[in-house]
Amino acid sequence: MTARVRPAGAADVDPVAAFLHERMNARISAGTWRALLDYPWRPPEVERGWLVEDEGAVVGFMGTIYSDRPTAKGTRRFCDLSSWYLAAAYRGTGIGDELLRAGMAKPGVTYQTMTARRATGRKIRALGFSILDEARSLFRPGEAVEELRPIRDPAEIRERLTGEERRMLDDHHGLDIHHAVVEGRAGQGTWLVWQRKLKGAGVAYHDVLHASDYDFLSAHAAQIAGLVCVGETAVLAIDRRMMNDGDDPGAVETIPLPRWYRSPDVARRDVGHLYSEVLLLDQKLP
Questions:
Q1: What residues does the N-acetyltransferase domain cover (predicted)?
Q2: Segments of the chain scoring below 70 in pLDDT
Q3: What does pTM read for this prediction?
């Protein structure tokens, strides 16, 4: 074998997409896989993931989905690691670990992964990753409350966002996610972004992807569930790091696959679910 690890470029988009469709998950079309390498917010200077190549053929890949996001420390570069896959014949040779290390080698970058299998979790823990979250709060809709007002009109939402938030909104244009601004009587509120996907026996999970004010979200989570989860069997799902101690925790559910991250200076709460593999592949957040 003459396999080598190298960064993926523009010419690799279609071959890698075909490889992932044929070898990793055929239920996801090659066109959908393509989005991992050619996503709309990709900074122009970064690689399009890392691949393993043997005599010109793609035999492995790991996605690196970069984004620049606002945090409490200012704008920071993030990378969502995704779709680490190596053809069976190359497993156990060490090339898979080389691929994994290549994808997380940039200094100053906050790395995250929300879809790592347990074996991958053990590997990345040894590479400095910590658990970002392993539980979430679930809120079922109750009686409607008048003290909160949801704003759903796209134009009105946009008027209430900062310039940075408008950029985030535009970056995700066309993806299957939902937005609202939720305001209280005192003028406080939050821009809320969530994903709606069915789980199990027809329960719709409205997973919070981002909130501009997590304190407001945490304090009013049960009431917000009554505004978001309308007309169906549903729950509002909020990762525990987005909640404050002392607020109603709802029903706490263990996340099947823990979420992981590694960062030089970004707080856990600033690591959200926008700009991610899950959204690009239109899958439910695990």
A1: 3-152
A2: 1, 143-146
A3: 0.95
Rounded Cα distance, 125 and 72, in Å: 25
H or E element in which residue 218 lies: helix 214-219
Q: Could you give the CA distance from residue 30 to residue 36 in angstroms, rounded to a whole number?
A: 10
**Which amino acid type is present at position 118?**
R
Q: Please, what are the domains in the chain?
A: 4-106 (3.40.630.30), 136-262 (3.40.630)
User: What's the CA angle centered on 48, arms 162 and 113, to 5 degrees?
Assistant: 65
pLDDT one-digit tens code per residue, 263-278: 999 999 999 999 999 9
Phi and psi based region of residue 233 (left: phi greater than 0; alpha: psi -120 to 50; beta: remaining): beta
**Strand boundaries in the chain, DSSP class E:** 4-7, 50-54, 57-71, 74-86, 110-113, 130-139, 148-151, 178-184, 189-199, 203-211, 234-239, 251-262
Give kind and range of the element (H or E) at residue 124.
Answer: helix 118-125
Residues of the chain by 3-state class (helix, strand, coil), percent to 5: 30, 35, 35
Q: What whole-number distance in Å separates Cα of residue 116 and Cα of residue 81? A: 9
